[in-house]
Structure formats: structure tokens, C-alpha cells
Design goal:
The protein is of the alpha+beta class. It has 3 helices and 15 strands.
């Protein structure tokens, strides 16, 4: 078995020494015991060493590793330990757990293939696609066997209308339970709950608060009534303004009509005097002079 490992390692190193420009894919079958987990990986370049008790292989440039339960892509990936038990990744990491349907991105990752525990660090984003739960934090330790995530620092978890924040949290995927501690807060729509410790059942939406409990709840019925009253008041104000404008316009038209009627009446009163002067054989100007 040791000779086979040396053979594969020597082959890998020779390929890497030629600075192969294109990505290559390698499968560790003969290098591992027949009962062991299969590992498939690829990269732009690779370096590796092998020994009786420890193996180490480093992939660089578009590094990719696939095990029976974990898929990882990163700038660089290192596999080490007996039978490549440990996997560490660095830079632009993305991946998913094929068994639990958990997808993730982060800056650093370490994964123990024996204990099935993955630790994600630096701007971690975890997505539980089965339950529509998303988590953002700085550190997440996920145990695949127990389906439990221990979440730390700057936590924001979202599910349905829930936005949950704290400094420390435990997410139990199978039970759909979330435990928050350290500046814990849950916002549900316009409702807010704060406490030292908060437990949320993500299925039933039941909340348990403990320690320095605070909160605010919006009465949607009263809020709806207030909104309707406000809208009715606004409509009434608009109608009143429109009515006042129409009344003002009507008053202006009435004044214009009265002014026009007064002008017509004045003209009608001066016309008979002019007509009488013409009948007497005098010109209008003469009549006006005589009158004066």
C-alpha cells in the first residue's frame, strides 16, 4: 500500500512540476483502502508528499474536492493526515453538504472526514435549502452526524418573516429549533422581541424569552383602522379643497356676469338721449353742446 501511495504521489509531483496549464482530475482509489471513502479532486497545479503515517497534498488554482458527502471549491485546498482525513480550504470558498443539503460560502474552511465536522470562518454564509433558512456569521461549526450548527459572532438568521440576531446561536436542523444568546433579538414583521436568551421553534413560530425581556407588538387591526381613517380623512380634505375651488370659481364667474350686466345697463341708458338729438335735426355733437 505504501509503494502505491509513493507511486501516485510521485506521479502527481511530476505533473505539477510541468506547470500544467489546464485543470486535471485525479481519483484516489488505489491510494486508499477498499473500504475508505472515495475522493475526487482537480486543480491547476498540485504538490504532495506521502509517508507511512501521514499524507499531504496541496491543490492550487481552481481547486476542487469531492467526497461522498462534501463538495468544496476554493483558491487552494490541502488534504492531509492518514488517508487524507483532514481537508483545509482557503480563499473564495463555496460548497455544499450532499447529505444534508446545506450550501455555504466563506473565506476559510476545515473539515474532518472522520468526525464529519466542518468549521467555516470569515464572512460565512450558510443556506439550508430544505427549510429556507439562511445564516450569516463569522464562525460556523457544523456537525453532519447531529445536523447541528454552532454559530458565533455577528449572527443574522432569516426564515419566513423572522430576522434573528445574536452573538451566539445553535441551530438544530432536524428539530428546527434555534437557540440565541448574547444581545438576542427576533423581529417578526413589525413585532420585535429582545432577551438575554431566546428559543424559537421554526416550525410552530413559538418563541420563549428569558432574562431582561423586552419587546414591542403592533396591533394590526388597530393599525388597519388607523390607516383607513387616515385615508378617509385625506379623501375628505381633497373633496373639501375641490369644493372650495369650485365655489370660488363660481363666485368669480358671478362677479364677471354682474360687471357685464352693469356695463350693458349704462350703455342702454345713454342711447335714448342720442336718438332724440338726431330726431330734432341736430348732430349728436350739437345736441351735447346745447345741453351744456
Amino acid at each position: 500500500m505504501t509503494m502505491i501511495r509513493h507511486f501516485f504521489c510521485t506521479l502527481f509531483c511530476r505533473i505539477a512540476s510541468f506547470n500544467c496549464a489546464t485543470a486535471f482530475s485525479l481519483m484516489l482509489l488505489a491510494a486508499l483502502p477498499l473500504y475508505a471513502e472515495r475522493i475526487i479532486f482537480s486543480a491547476n497545479s498540485m504538490t504532495g508528499t506521502a509517508g507511512n503515517s501521514s499524507d499531504k497534498t496541496t491543490l492550487r488554482g481552481n481547486a476542487y474536492v469531492l467526497t461522498s458527502s462534501m463538495e468544496i471549491s476554493a483558491d487552494a485546498i490541502t488534504m492531509s493526515g492518514k488517508d487524507f482525513r483532514y481537508i483545509e480550504a482557503d480563499g473564495n470558498i463555496s460548497g455544499k453538504n450532499l447529505d444534508t443539503k446545506m450550501e455555504f460560502t466563506c473565506g476559510k474552511l476545515s473539515y474532518d472526514r472522520e468526525t464529519k465536522i466542518a468549521t467555516l470562518r470569515d464572512s460565512v454564509h450558510l443556506d439550508d435549502t430544505e427549510n429556507n433558512v439562511t445564516v450569516e456569521a463569522q464562525i460556523i461549526e457544523y456537525n453532519q452526524d447531529t445536523d447541528t450548527a454552532i454559530i458565533q459572532i455577528d449572527i443574522t438568521l432569516k426564515q419566513k418573516d423572522n430576522v434573528c440576531k445574536s452573538m451566539y446561536a445553535i441551530y438544530r436542523k432536524k428539530a428546527q429549533m434555534l437557540e440565541l444568546s448574547g444581545n438576542s433579538q427576533i423581529t417578526q414583521g413589525e413585532d420585535t422581541f429582545r432577551a438575554q436568551e431566546i428559543t424559537l421553534n421554526l416550525d410552530t413560530q413559538e418563541i420563549t424569552l428569558d432574562g431582561r425581556v423586552k419587546g414591542s407588538v403592533v396591533d394590526n387591526k388597530n393599525a388597519t383602522q388607523d390607516k383607513e381613517m387616515h385615508e378617509e380623512s385625506a379623501v375628505a380634505s381633497d373633496l373639501e379643497r375641490t369644493s372650495n375651488a369650485e365655489q370660488n370659481e363660481t363666485a368669480e364667474l358671478r362677479k364677471a356676469d354682474e360687471a357685464q350686466e352693469n356695463t350693458s345697463s349704462t350703455q342702454t341708458q345713454t342711447m335714448p338721449h342720442v336718438e332724440n338729438a338726431e330726431q330734432d335735426g341736430e348732430s349728436p355733437d350739437t345736441a351735447q353742446g346745447a345741453a351744456s
